[in-house]
Write a structure and sequence with these properties.
36% of the residues lie in helices and 20% in strands. By secondary structure, the chain is α/β, with parallel strands linked by helices. It has an 8-stranded mixed sheet, sandwiched between helices. Strands 4-3-5-6-7-8 form a 6-stranded mixed sheet, sandwiched between helices. Strands 1-2 form a two-stranded antiparallel ribbon. Helix 1 crosses helix 5 (157-177) and helix 5 runs antiparallel to helix 6 (182-188).
């Protein structure tokens, strides 16, 4: 056994984990693996005693056989979330149908499934896959699920298969022995696996074993732990996988702290959206809007990520029907590089003019050999358009737009080129009555109990903040003192 120095966790080898499961007389289930071979189940066969753990192991490797067993997916896809869920449902249903509970009164049934495509010689970094476990915590309990998506970065295809097998063992072990502590399930995923070669970019835990789990916090943990650089969750709070959401889509993104969402944010997204859908090569039916919050924007004054504060923001955005992206991309070019993995369709960014000033600040690109030109090469060799919202810092100052924002003389020719070619455009149809609103000011007013912040946020958002005591709201502080 290995000892993890930073947390003093005892890390079992895959063989030790498989053996411990095999030695438990009450764990019994099936394995179904597609694509990368029987990589997980072989650990259990090799550990010894597998006959009392494994009811069935199979691989419907042929595509026609796979479709005949699990049904045909949209687009005839095989490595996708819906295929995995169909595998789990089908195989677990067979356990229930074929095994008499009277003959197995103490058994906790489970099904492990994965569907994986390793890299190819033509696409060396294209490996990815889905894996999941459906399991019982007690014989008389309904099932719970853990589902995750991985991207494979090891250049050696055989090592990709090996890593999938180890992570599958880690997942099964975590479900049975750490389901009361989802954080430990996540930590143990990388036992004997390097984070550099396997990226977990989506995880979902559902069912009675995880009744208290907020899957949005699991998404946040993936980024916070460095398991991935970006995660997505939908208006229903369920975690989403980027390729399932963004594949071949037109993408329109707005970055902010949204602490809280203000009328300025809504004015930005509505006007930017109306401009974007009028563009060539943009189809409204194929458009996905993302509200992005960077990890840096989630940090408190102490540098830690405040999970309660994060959930407050997420609750409001979800209630407004928005899809949320959490990323570790400080620079916009990294965000566009991320989107470009999944789409070549036209993309749009909505940003305030003060953010655009920072985009043209060379200090943010010192780590790049090509400096700001390398970053802009990534940004504008894609089909990208930036929509710029004006700013008015106070009542005495004028409105700043792309026409009068400060740009270093050395970068002025590049800036003028992007303006001339309409790669950067102003949002002209803005509401001047909301330019004075800043989220930091609204947040301070909420926390200090000052009146008037309700008029700075969209309808119903003020009620959400009050009813759910978000962002440090206190009814007592808001109450006006009475006079005799």
């Amino acid at each position: 056994m290995l000892l993890q120095n930073e947390s003093q966790r005892v890390i079992l080898s895959p063989a030790q984990k498989a053996r411990r499961i095999n030695q438990d007389p009450d764990l019994y289930g099936t394995f179904a693996e597609i694509g990368a071979g029987q990589e997980t189940v072989r650990h259990f066969f090799r550990a010894g005693g597998a006959s009392q753990t494994i009811a069935k192991a199979m691989s419907a490797y042929d595509k026609d056989f796979s479709n005949a067993i699990y049904g045909k997916e949209a687009g005839n896809r095989f490595v996708c979330e819906s295929r995995l869920r169909n595998m789990l449902g089908h195989e677990y249903g067979l356990i229930v149908d074929r095994l008499s509970r009277a003959d197995h009164p103490t058994k906790k049934f489970f099904t492990f499934a994965n569907t994986v495509a390793t890299s190819t010689f033509e696409k060396p970094h294209s490996g990815h896959g889905w894996m999941g476990v459906r399991f019982q915590t007690a014989p008389d309990q309904p099932t719970s699920d853990v589902i995750l998506h991985v991207r494979l970065h090891d250049p050696d295809i055989s090592m990709q298969q090996e890593n999938i097998g180890i992570m599958g063992v880690n997942l099964i072990f975590g479900c049975f022995f750490h389901h009361a502590n989802p954080q430990e399930i996540m930590t143990a995923l990388y036992d004997n696996v390097s984070r550099h070669v396997v990226e977990v970019d989506m995880i979902q835990m559902n069912g009675p074993a995880f009744a208290g789990v907020d899957n949005r916090l699991l998404s946040l943990q993936l980024v916070k732990r460095g398991y991935t650089d970006a995660v997505i969750f939908g208006p229903d709070g369920q975690n989403l996988q980027a390729s399932e959401v963004l594949y071949k889509k037109n993408i329109l993104a707005i970055r902010g702290s949204f602490r809280p969402v203000t009328k300025v944010n809504i004015d930005m997204i509505m006007n930017g959206y109306n401009m974007f859908i009028k563009e060539n090569r943009v189809e409204r039916s194929n458009l996905h809007v993302l509200f992005e919050i960077t990890l840096n924007n989630l940090q408190s004054d102490t540098g830690d990520v405040d999970e309660k504060d994060f959930i407050d923001r997420a609750d409001i955005l979800c209630s407004l029907g928005q899809t949320v992206l959490i990323s570790n991309y400080q620079q916009y070019y990294k965000l566009i590089e991320y989107f470009s993995r999944y789409t070549r369709a036209r993309m749009g960014l909505i940003m305030g003019v003060t953010n655009l000033v920072e985009v043209f600040d060379e200090k943010y690109y010192r780590e790049l050999n090509g400096g700001i030109l390398e970053a802009f090469g990534i940004l504008f060799t894609r089909d990208l358009k930036i929509y710029v919202y004006p700013s008015k810092s106070d009542s005495a100052s004028g409105v700043m737009t792309t026409a009068n924002m400060p740009v270093h003389p050395r970068l002025r020719p590049l800036y003028d080129y992007l303006l001339t070619n309409k790669r950067i455009v102003d949002i002209d149809s803005y509401d001047p009555s909301v330019l004075h609103i800043f989220s930091t000011q609204v947040l301070d007013m909420i926390r200090q109990g000052k009146a008037g912040w309700e008029d700075m946020v969209p309808p119903y958002v003020d009620n959400m903040i009050k009813d759910n005591r978000l962002f440090g709201y206190s009814a007592a502080r808001q109450a006006k003192p009475t006079t005799a």
